[in-house]
């Protein structure tokens, strides 16, 4: 890896482009593997409730490793941490390819993803600065969502054709991500020489949690992003059960195509946020958060594929506009207090607890036989209410 001048803040620098490329292929693999593995579970006649359970194992890796991965990202060059994490994802995908237990392989991918996330977001604060950080986050989200779009489509379409082909493609994309990490500039460790004793690491992590929670702006960001991503992952699984009930379609491609519409919308919303929102005007994103829940309620009552496409694209656009400014706010404030890697690790901890709780409630609803349409309406209404409460309780310090 080459060395980068720390003052280089260009959004088109070699380092930034290498990060975006690595992120695209890593996220492509994540999303293709999810739908390929869901198709594998269906083909092996696992019960419907096992699908969110598989994702819960993935999420549990984030929660259990949260006290350690932030320090990992800040103690080494973040590009090298990203390469190590993508290698773990590659190994997990290969395990599934070779017929090992899909829950075990997908959990290993979750471990890689947990290690990857603080490094990929933390490196943005080292490659750029100031108001460009919001734009860099917009680029990151756009790269991620483009990968979600293509990865989801590829996973579903290939799984309908050949499960093995779908799984092999996932492994290849992770291998490309590992190779792309080689071109990320070697930056000095943000916080080298930290204590690696278990007790000290746990104390440091929970101190970082307390520091960010007691700051009005970072608490506001943590709550908003946790609600958003908890809802987002639940919506993915809801679509898998909603499509056969509402549209009468039972293939693997349609749910992935609908997820792709959300992805397209998020790209649009992220671009709008980069142009219209700064760190000082984060409050502008809150109405979009409330409207996400409203759109999910309206969507759940549809019986037309065309209207479902349109509503999910609008929902995605609102989501992109909502979450990008909150991410940038946390990164900027977190870097100044606990370190960017630790701030993202705390964010992942909160987001994945929200995912685990929402997926758990969704799993219980599925096991209890709740209708998919009713579940969707209830889910959207509760999300809109939660964001509205967060908006009303927004601290004055975060309402600039």
UniProtKB/TrEMBL annotation:
Membrane-spanning segments: 16-41, 53-73, 93-117, 163-184, 227-245, 257-278, 285-302, 308-330, 342-364, 370-393
Pfam families per UniProt: MFS_1 (PF07690)
Membrane topology category: Multi-pass membrane protein
InterPro entries: LysoPLipid__transptr_LplT (IPR023727), MFS (IPR011701), MFS_trans_sf (IPR036259)
One term under GO cellular component: plasma membrane
Compartment(s) of residence: Cell membrane
Keyword terms, alphabetized: Cell inner membrane, Cell membrane, Lipid transport, Membrane, Transmembrane, Transmembrane helix, Transport
Taxonomic superkingdom: Bacteria
Main location: membrane
Single annotated GO MF: lysophospholipid:sodium symporter activity
Family: Belongs to the major facilitator superfamily. LplT (TC 2.A.1.42) family.
Function: Catalyzes the facilitated diffusion of 2-acyl-glycero-3-phosphoethanolamine (2-acyl-GPE) into the cell.
NCBIfam families reported in the protein's UniProt record: PRK11195.1
Protein name: Lysophospholipid transporter LplT
Organism: Candidatus Pantoea deserta
């Amino acid at each position: 890896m080459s060395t980068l001048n720390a003052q280089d803040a260009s959004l088109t620098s070699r380092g930034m482009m290498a990060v975006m490329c690595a992120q695209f292929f890593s996220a492509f693999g994540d999303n293709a593997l999810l739908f390929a593995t869901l198709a594998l579970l269906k083909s092996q006649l696992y019960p419907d409730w096992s699908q969110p359970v598989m994702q819960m194992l993935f999420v549990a890796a984030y929660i259990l490793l949260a006290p350690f991965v932030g320090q990992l990202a800040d103690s080494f060059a973040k590009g090298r941490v990203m390469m190590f994490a993508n290698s773990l994802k590659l190994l997990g995908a290969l395990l599934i390819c070779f017929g090992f237990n899909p829950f075990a392989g997908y959990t290993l991918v979750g471990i890689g993803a947990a290690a990857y996330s603080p490094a990929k977001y933390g490196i943005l604060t080292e490659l750029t600065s100031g108001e460009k950080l919001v734009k860099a986050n917009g680029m990151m989200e756009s790269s991620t969502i483009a990968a979600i779009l293509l990865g989801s489509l590829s996973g579903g379409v290939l799984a309908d054709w050949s499960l093995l082909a779908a799984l092999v493609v996932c492994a290849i994309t992770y291998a490309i991500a590992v190779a792309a990490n080689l071109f990320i500039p070697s930056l000095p460790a943000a916080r080298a020489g930290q204590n690696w004793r278990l007790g000290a690491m746990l104390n440091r992590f929970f101190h970082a949690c307390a520091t960010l929670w007691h700051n009005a702006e970072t608490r506001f960001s943590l709550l908003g992003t946790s609600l958003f991503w908890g809802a987002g992952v639940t919506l993915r699984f809801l679509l898998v059960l909603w499509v056969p009930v509402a549209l009468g379609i039972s293939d693997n491609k349609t749910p992935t195509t609908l997820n792709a519409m959300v992805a397209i919308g998020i790209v649009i919303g992220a671009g709008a946020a980069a142009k219209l929102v700064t760190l000082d005007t984060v409050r502008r994103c809150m109405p979009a958060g409330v409207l996400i829940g409203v759109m999910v309620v309206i969507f759940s009552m549809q019986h037309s594929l065309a209207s479902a496409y349109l509503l999910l694209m609008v929902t995605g656009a609102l989501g992109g506009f909502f979450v990008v400014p909150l991410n940038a706010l946390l990164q900027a404030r977190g870097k100044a207090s606990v370190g960017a890697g630790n701030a993202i690790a705390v964010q992942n901890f909160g987001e994945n607890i929200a995912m685990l709780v929402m997926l758990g409630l969704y799993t219980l609803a599925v096991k209890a036989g709740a209708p998919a349409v009713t579940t969707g309406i209830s889910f959207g209404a509760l999300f809109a209410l939660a964001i509205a409460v967060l908006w009303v309780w927004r601290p004055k310090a975060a309402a600039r």
